[in-house]
Amino acid sequence: MAFSCVAALLVVLAVTHGCEAVSLVRRDAPSDVDKLTQLIENMSASITAATQEMVDKMKALEMTGTAQAYMEDSRAKIQPLVEQVQAEATKLQEQVKPYISNIEEHIRPLTDNFNSHVKPLTDNFHEQVKPLTDMMEKLFQQVVDQSKALLPPQ
Q1: d(CA 2, CA 9)
Q2: Measured between alpha carbons, how far is 81 from 89 in angstroms, rounded to an integer?
Q3: What is the DSSP string of 13-27?
Q4: What biological-process GO terms show up in the record (predicted)?
Q5: How far apart are CA 16 and CA 21, in angstroms?
Q6: pLDDT tens digits, one per residue of 110-119
Q7: Residue range 118-149, pLDDT digits in tens
Q8: What is the rounded distance in angstroms from the CA atom of residue 146 to the CA atom of residue 153?
Q9: Angle value at C-alpha 91, between 90 and 94, nearest 5 degrees
Q10: What is the b/e burial string over 102-139, where b = at least 16 CB atoms within 10 angstroms of the residue's CB?
Q11: How many Å apart are CA 47 and CA 55, to the nearest integer?
């Protein structure tokens, strides 16, 4: 009978322990489910963000490609105009060269005449100012020499 009581006690303990274990599993299961749900939500958000970033990059690449195609198309349309303007500028330059030469020929006597009148005046001014500049140079040299003489020997 003692054996039966011990066996019955063991069965009761085992059942009780099993019930508690099941209740613990049941209590832990919602927290595990919550953790898994949170993990899946985080992964979903991460994947969504990465996908959106890739879509944005693809749109940017498409816009860059479109802009580049537009620029090349515009360049192809403008290039003939640029060449035409350059050709016209070259023609105008060739047409203006004789006029410029003619103007230079007419102005040269005037500038030579002006120089012939101004040269004596500038030479005269230089002759009058030269002694004054020489005198000032000597004065500054004397000041420098006297200032050096006042300095203590090193």
Answers
A1: 10
A2: 12
A3: HHHHHHHHHHHHHHH
A4: lipid transport; lipoprotein metabolic process
A5: 8
A6: 888 888 988 9
A7: 899 899 999 999 999 999 999 999 999 988 88
A8: 14
A9: 90
A10: eeeeeeeeeeeeeeeeeeeeeeeeeeeeeeeeeeeeee
A11: 12
